[in-house]
Every structure is written in structure tokens, then in C-alpha cells.
């Protein structure tokens, strides 16, 4: 019998939220989002509506207002406790009040209270935020409007409440439209939702509009991936300060935002590291038993995890170390500590991987992270941590603080699986751990994205990163961003700086230079820009810079434990009008003098969710299982036939070679006799088997090259080390057997 924890309610109480309208404006890689939420109290009593909802974890919330009748009430940013007291006092005196605040545990959860709606009265709430769009490994810019706030694992003492119901019972509607502006042509926009055709607004295709197709139900995230031509162009935007703000303050001075895209020499990118400690931390909470997407219901998240681990383990270089942890309410590991990668340890790990099920209960990630960080470092083996998770936790800030504390000894690569994965957690893990974040949603395959991140992890180490500025005489810069600790090929690095001083009128150009060291050679990236502020750019850059600085100060406050940064954060938040964990937006309708009669009835606005309910876990922990699904593996979906690619990959040895046996012949679609008969006499069976496998990969699976390229490089390296004779003849014989026409060079031989 399942024990519900009370996060879900299906009572058909009157809900005052009627509709949500969202306007998106994207300028290059920065998005401004305006959401309008319309309420009406249809009850015969005054109500207080409470709405807990998700936002992107790095969003800078910069405006909150309410329209009652014909009057607009604009909220102010105040210290959080002061704002709460003002809200309570206003309701007690019969006034209407509105409160918006960020969760103290996780920066991507917000709660909004609409207090004092009289019977029959309507209110329109306007919320605005700005955010940087994350760059995917394929150079797309990802925007996500979260629709789902998955029930989150709550350690004892957590106080966040989430009210969620099946999507079919959500009574409000969504209207969404976007405008895109770029200095470069917009190539395409992809989405997990159905879109109307992209409408270009000019002939050079640098402006466009995008809309959701009719009939969209707000039962999943609205995700857009925007692709620009020549996406790797560095840019710098200088934004003028606010005229009403004091000179010398962040909002009063110009602010520069620099975007750099490092390009490494081909000689560096063609080599991969042969060392490292690779630690894989896999989510095995009950919700991982759900389908990856609606089109492939037989493929669950945990099954995709197992396939991904197969590719990862086959792609690791000989000489490295590795271990696999899995977590739910408790955690498990395959080895007591990381072990050297070889055939024996790889086989042992894969055997355990095949037994993995989504049966460990809740999502307590803090415990395994503490254990991983407590392990001794292996000399000359830099640690690379890969974290897979399909939801979120309410103690996000504690988790990120722990990762940052240990960032000097590892890099962290994170993967958000499915709808509702916490952007604050996924992006924060990568940011604080000096790695890269990926999201797997809709019909995305997990494997290519994970292998792309493994490529980053195997990239030669970048060291001695420094940033220097060259500015006109009389102009100085205060860098607002945290120091750059990692650089990856083609991935954006952002720097915010506050410019002070006037400078001379004839010197208008400045420059920023990032230098670092790659194995055997230095690398320098230099960008020249005008220090004159651009015209009519608003305060978007200032708000993003303020948000960046606020997050850094909040992290410093948590690291110090005794605090000390709160006063600075509150001052900056109030000055910039950007939310923080220490402040809140408060608006009170004092204009009409009306007093709301009668006691307020509290109404919790229901969020859509994908029919997941919390269940009791061992020792008071909480897990997630699908409605109607038993928490044991006996009811797991029947395994479909293994993909031919994965079948071939599963036969590869840790060294990179394949063995000539009936299993390989079957994977190639041939009989053992056919394969044996075609083997040239001068080569060994292992060389022949490995060449056949490479020909099959290049001949039949080029559409999945991103998934197998690393393990193919390992195979080619093994072949070269054998110094085998007659390789061209083997390639010709393999082509004839498999019906391909590949050249030796195509196989990297």
C-alpha cells in the first residue's frame, strides 16, 4: 500500500488562476521573459491565492506588478522578513497585497501570494525576468519555460510546499509567443512542442517570430533551441547606466558583457587524455522508471541510463580510473573506491549496470556527493564527475555549496533527464564544478549528449587562465563575474564588468584578452570593443550582472556559514531591483481605501505534473513512483531487442579491440563461416574482427557517429599499436564482406 506524503491534491476547489500569457524576446543569447497571470475570484468570500512555480535557476527577476481594475501597482524589492511582515499587516488591515519570493533552498522555485481578492474581483499579475541562454554542445541556444515543478525530494526540515495535479485537471491556459533578434542569421528553431512555422521579419533573416501551435496544453516544458549562423562569434555589449542611479554604483555606471568562444587548434582537439578518474553518479529514484518520451514508451529513463553507461565504459581510455555510484534515498557503489580501467573491472561494472533498476526511493544526492568527495585523490588522475538526475531537490543551495567547496579537485558534468529537471541544480552543478550541463528532453537521445560531455572531459587540460583588460586612459573596470576556471572548445565564456571613469573623447576602443595554456602551446583570445554605451539597450545587461554578483555573494555567505554577506546582497538587490534569497517583491494596494470584509480563504494554485506521486521511503525518506506502478522491478517494462549498435559496442574489449566469435558475426549480420572464410591469411583474428567492426560502424551507423567515435578512436589506436601487416587488404576484404566501399583513411588507420 502506498503512503502518500501530501504533495498532491485533486480536490476540485475553485482556483482563481485563469490564464498565463508569456512574451519572450531573445537578443543574441539573452532572453527577456514577461509573464502575465490573470486571476478572478469566483467565490463568495475574499481569497488568498498561493502559487508555487518554477523559473530558470539563473533568472534575474526584475519586475513584479499587479493591475486591479484600471490601476497598476508596482512592487518594490525589500528585505524578505520586512516584506513578509508588510504583506501580513496589509491583509490584517483589509488591504490587497501581493508577495513574490524566491525559495531559500532552491533559486528556481518561487512562491507568489495574491492576498485580498474580493468576491468577483479580477487581478492581472505581471512578472518579468531576464536570463542568459545556455549553449548546447551542438551550438544551439536553449530556452526553457518550465511547466512542471516535479515533486522534489525533501530532507527532514525542508519547508517548500508544492501543490500539483495531473495536467488534465489544470484549469488555466497558456499563450506563448517569442521574438528573436540576432546580429547573425537565424538558421532554425527546434522545440519539444509543436510550433507554427518560423516567421522571418526581414530579408537577412536576423529577426523572426515563433509561436506555439494551436491546442498546446501546458503539461510539459516549453523548450526552444535556437541556432544562429556563425554562432562562435565573440561579442561585447556596453550598456549605459541608469540616469537616476548614483555614479559609482553598479546601476549608475556602464556595464560591459563579453561573450567569448574559444577555438582550440586541431592538433590539440585530435588528441584525448589517457588519464583521469571518471566517477558516474546515477539517479535510481522511482521516477527513473518512467518513459523517456511519449513516442518511445518502452524506453524508460533507467534503460537509457544503462545504454549510456555501456557507451561511456567502452569509450574510456586505458590507464584511467573509474567508479559508478547510484542513488535514491540511499546510495550504492560498484567498487569501494575507484579502480583502474581494464577488461576485468569493465566487465564487472557492466554486469552490475545491467542489474540497475529505478528502485532506490527518493532523490538524496547530498549523501553520495559527500562520500565521493571524502575519497582520496588519485595522483595524476584528475577527477571528472558525471551526474545524472531527472528531477530536483529542495536543498539545491547546500548541494551546490558542497560542489563548489570541492571544485579545485574535480570537474562536474551534469545531465537533466526529462521534463521538470531542475535547471538550478543541473546548471549549478556544472557552473560550480567547472564542467558542462546538458538537458535531455522530448525525443532527445541521451547517449550523444553524454558522449559530447565525455569529449570535453577528455579534452587536454587548460591551465593558467587569466583575463586582462586594455581600456582608454581614465577608464577602469571592476569584474563582476567569478573567475573563469574552465574553458571548453566552442563553449561560451561570459564576463561582466563595471566601467568607471570618463576617459578621453578620442580614445573609444578597449579590449579584453583571455590567455591560457594548452599542452605544448599557449592560447590567446582577444576581443576589441567600443567602450561607448550602445543606444536604447535598457538595463538587461545591468540586471544580469547584478544577478551574477548576487549569486556569488550568496554562495560566499553559505561558504562562510556564519554569514556576513546578507547586508551586501540586500543592498544590491534593492538597488538593482533583482530578486535574491534574502529579499522579496512586495506590492500593497493602498489607493482606493476599500477594506476587504470577512476572513480570507486560502487557495493553493495547482501545478501540472506528469502523474507522479510521492511515496514513503525507508527511514522516513520519500521516493517517487508512477501512479499505478509497483515500486519493485517485477513490473518493469519488458526489455525490447537490443539496438544493433549497442549489440556491437557491447562486444568491444577494454583495450579497444573485438574478438572474432559467433556473437560478433551475428552483430555484423553474417554467419561465423562467412566471417572466418573472408579473413586474409596474414592477420590475426583480433585485427580482422576490429577492422570489420570499424567498417560496420562507418558504413551503417554514421548517423550515430557522435555516440561511437571515441570508442572507434580507441580501436584505431589499438590497431596502429599492433603494427599489423596487410591492413589495406583487410579493409578491401571487409568492404567486400559487408557491402561497403570505405577507404583506410576513413577508418582513422
TrEMBL record:
Top-rank taxon, per record: Eukaryota
SMART domains: VIT (SM00609)
Ranges for domain VIT: 1-131
Pfam families registered for this protein in UniProt: VIT (PF08487), VWA_3 (PF13768)
Residue ranges constituting the VWFA domain according to the UniProt record: 277-458
The keyword Coiled coil is annotated on this UniProt entry: yes
Residues in coiled coil: 339-366
Official protein name in the record: VIT domain-containing protein
